Amino acid sequence: MARFEKEARQQESDLIEKLVHINRVAKVVKGGRRFGFAALVVVGDGKGKVGFGKGKAREVPEAIRKATEEAKKTMIRIPLREGRTLHHDIEGRHGAGKVVIRSAQAGTGIIAGGPMRAVFEALGVQDVVTKSTGSSNPYNMVRGTFDALSKQSSPRMVAARRSKKVSEIVSRRGGREAVVAVEAVPEVVQEVAQEVTE
Which class for 125: exposed (0-12), middle (13-18), buried (19 or more C-beta within 10 A)? Predict the structure, then answer.
């Protein structure tokens, strides 16, 4: 029992916590204003698990603590490609906010706005390109990002759904990328490639 508790504590210490937004709200009462705080926190392990939570309290530290606890409870696993980017491009939306997330080549980095950047840093993604349109409310942006990430599927998941082997799915993807690469190179290189094949 003690060993499991120790492992759980160690896993919690490995988590990356990102404070995305703090909102101060005021309630007008007989004696004046009474202030409260709402915090939005993103938590991840940097290896494909991420969650978000919100907390409200009269003090900022308490609001952050509540939000962090909720985020740890709602963590989801996202399949990553080579542990650094996403498998395919996805779109997500929440309310009036819409986000587009695209996988990227190695060395691209995280190209994302504030709330979305926090999600990808906590998730452990190193290369991604994103664009958010519509609502710039951090709550909507984070929820829209999670909506998009929940649609992410790996070749293994697709293969299981279609009763095929992973190699069949990946080979098709590789074939398509090879065709795109050939189309992208100049005509001179294509001519050389044709000569080699002949």
Answer: buried
pTM: 0.75
* Residue found by looking up tokens 């003090």 in the block: 59
Whole-number Å distance between alpha carbons of 155 and 159: 6
Backbone φ and ψ of 86, nearest 5°: -90, 160
**Distance separating alpha carbons of residues 194 and 108, to the nearest angstrom:** 32
The Cα angle at residue 103 between residues 100 and 104, in degrees rounded to 5: 125
Q: In the 8-state DSSP scheme, what is residue 81?
A: B
Q: Which residues sit opposite 53 in a β-bridge?
A: 41
Contact 86, 80 (CB under 8 A): yes
Q: What is the pLDDT tens value at each position of the chain, 198 positions in all?
A: 556 555 555 556 688 899 999 999 999 999 899 999 999 999 998 888 999 999 999 999 999 999 999 999 989 998 888 888 888 888 998 989 899 999 888 888 899 888 899 999 998 888 899 999 998 899 999 999 999 988 888 877 878 878 877 777 777 655 444 333 333 334 443 443 444 445
